[in-house]
Amino acid sequence: MAKVSPTKTPMREQPAAERIRNYDEVPFGYSPEEAILEAKRCLMCKNPKCIDGCPVEIDIPGFIQFITEKNFKDGITLLKEKNILPAICGRVCPQEEQCEKECILGVKNEPVAIGRLERFLADWEAEQGEIELPPKPKSTGKKIVIVGAGPAGITAAADLVRLGHKVDMFEALHEPGGVLVYGIPEFRLPKSIVFREIHYLEKLGVRLFTDQVIGKIKSIDELLKEYDAVFLGTGAGLPWFLNVAGENLNGIYSANEYLTRANLMKAYLFPTYKTPIVKGKRVATVGGGNVAMDCARTALRLGAEKSIIIYRRSRGEMPARDEEIHHAEEEGVIFQLLSNPAAFHGDENNWVREVECIRMKLGEPDDSGRRRPVPIPDANFRMPIDVAIIAIGNSPNPLIPSTTPDIETGKWGNIITDLETGKTSKPGVFAGGDVATGAATVILAMGAGKVAARGIHEYVMKKGKKE
Question: Alpha-carbon distance 427 to 174, whole Å?
Answer without folding.
Answer: 30
